[in-house]
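S.,

Sequence below, as promised.
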Amino acid sequence: MIEEPLPTPDEAWQRMLEGNRRFVGEAPEHPHQDVSYRAELTDGQRPVAALLGCSDSRLAAEIIFDLGLGDLFAIRNAGQMATDSAVASIEYAVELLQTPLLIVLAHDSCGAVRAAVDSTALNADPLPPHIWKLVAPIVPSARRVLRRSGGTSVADIDAELVGLEHLRGTVAELLESSEIISHAVTSGRLAIVGAKYRLADGLAIPVIQVGLSDPDIPTLVKEQSK
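The prediction came back faster than expected:
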């Protein structure tokens, strides 16, 4: 088993940023992908971060952050939803693996967000039940964005703003729904970063953070989750 000490939340986020810069700059190192390292992982894991991301095929998280085997505890579903199974998986990483960082990764041109926005139209065709159940939590974000814009129809809803609203809401929901996650943040051993991945240039842009000491990333406040 790998015995390297776990990084602090700030060190973990810095490592993620450096990996993303390598990916964007076409200079990836492809760490921890050799046979010997694979063998070392047979007895356990110590991921540097947990990540709740979208299932979109363009968001291969280990590639985006230039990571390898054992580096990332990844949970993915359409629209990076805080489902019961997602929250339980994150709690496992935080409580049992002592993972110091949780990233919630959204992206532009998200199909789940688009489906939620389109479903707000009065004449919208009904979605299949399982898909509707998944994307329904995004609908309130779409309605808030519409209300703030002063618009009156789906055409007035900016889907990218909806995606950011949903991202902030997901971070807030994780803190509110899980005592394990919230306690780890308040005790200083876990930080959460909500980031948006840009498909065109490959950058993961931090949008919101809880528990990091970096003052340049916005801090979560109650108003952002309303």
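Confidence is low (pLDDT under 50) at residues 221-226.

Coffee later?
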